[in-house]
Amino acid sequence: MSLDPPRFTGSRFGVEHSRPRVSVCMATYNGAEYVREQIDSILDQLADGDELVIVDDASPDDTVTVLESLSDPRIRLTRSAVNAGYVRTFEAALARSTADVVLLADQDDVWMPGRVDAMLAALRESGALVVASNLVVLGTDEPLPSPITGRPWRLERSQSRQHRRNVLRIMLGDAPYFGCTMGVRREALPLLTPFPDFLTESHDLWIAIAANEARSIVHVEQPTLRRRVHESNASTPRPRGIRAALGSRWMLVRARAEARRRLRRA
Fold it and tell me: What are phi and psi of 62, to 5 degrees?
């Protein structure tokens, strides 16, 4: 695994600055109510050779029926026989992706026009392995508030190279890295996958920790999606109990150690 991936040039990506193929990886579970709107916003930005890889986590509702009603050839649907949880379902979607750049997507957000182009441009210009953008709340177009400070929760481009500070903010719960705002080069997958066995939540923070430890992440300041906030969100900015918070922090400490181990091995 190279930590200095090539820019989008040469034989693999075609002529300089040509657009690489994109895989969008989505995990679904009981998403029948909102998933069609999200998929429409994604497909509008994908080229003919791109793919939307969906793994359904044994939804008991009509999610699969909705997905199977979509006749777009770019959609690749896998239906899991047993419920594995969103972390393992995203991991399964990543394993099924085939393109040069992989973008993660939740089932209930709405992508803003230009999201794919902005993410690809940031990767191309920075040479980074991972890209993360900002988001706004669907219906208000306002950023989420930081659970620590209450101020608008945003990533800044200038913070992209502040790797130690970024990891510290992740550990403190004050870094707005969301999986739905992230993308990775295929070259990053040997570092990121398989997800650590102990990772039961926050695959997005695992990706952010590993990318910062590899000193290879770029932040996109513009919001690229509208996040639908509702009671069924897998992640929430609301504070949790002390025991749950401490357990989560310990898992992130272990994630940092695992990222460093993988980087040494590489």
Answer: -95, 20
